[in-house]
Amino acid sequence: MSDFDLQTLDLFQRIYLVDEPLFTPVKENKKIENTLRFSGSAQKRLLFVYHQPQNWSGADEKMIHTLITNGLKLPLTDVVLLNLFENNTPDWQTILQSLHPEKIIFWGCDAYAETAGLAKPLYTVQQQEGYRYLLVHAAAAFHDERDLKTKLWASIKNLFELP
Q1: What CA–CA distance (Å, rounded) separates 107 from 109?
Q2: Which residues, 6+ apart, have CB-to-CB distance to 72 below 8 Å?
C-alpha cells in the first residue's frame, strides 16, 4: 500500500459513529426582535419621523424643540424622534409594532410614507387604524417661511385636537 492509502485508511478508522438523529430539530424563535434607535420615550405614543444622513442642523433642532416644548407644552422626552436613516429605513410595520404610536408627524418623509401605503397630501391629517398622521415638509423648509409655519401649526393643532 502507498503512503496515501495508509493515511486515508487511518483517517477513516478514526471516524466514530454517534447515536444521534441525522437532523436535530431546531426550535424556531417566532418573535423577531427589531431594535430601533430613537430619542425620547414611546410612553405618550407621539412619533416624529424624519430622514437625515446627519442629525438635524442646530436651527432645525431648535425649531422642533420649540414646537414640542412651547407649542405642544410637552417635555422633549415625551416625543419619539426617529431618524429613518440611522435605522436603515426600517419597515413601517416594524415601527408600528415597536413603538405603537397614536400620533405621527412625517418631516419630509412623504416618499417613505407613500411606500408604507399612507396617503400623501401634505398638511392634511389622515386616519389609519390605531393612529393619526400628518405629512409635512422637512424641518429646514420652515426657517424663513412664515406661511409654512402657520400652515404647519394649524395642521398640528388639528392632529392633536388643540383649540
Answers
A1: 5
A2: 79, 156, 160
CA distance 137 to 111: 11
Q: Which residues, at least 6 apart from 76, have a Cβ–Cβ distance to it below 8 Å?
A: 40, 65, 68, 69
Torsion of CA 149, 153, 159, 160, to 10 degrees: 140
The type of residue at 97 is Q
**Which of 32, 42, 39 has the alpha carbon at shortest distance from 91?**
32
Going from the C-alpha of 64 to that of each of 59, 79, 156, the distances in angstroms are 9, 11, 12
List the chain pLDDT tens, one digit each, 163 residues. 555 555 555 555 555 544 544 444 444 433 334 589 999 988 899 999 999 887 677 888 888 989 999 999 999 899 999 999 999 999 999 999 999 999 999 999 989 999 999 988 999 999 999 999 999 999 989 988 999 999 999 999 999 998 7
Task: Domain 42-159: give its CATH superfamily.
Answer: Uracil-DNA glycosylase-like domain (3.40.470.10)
How is residue 34 written as a grid cell?
A: 427589531
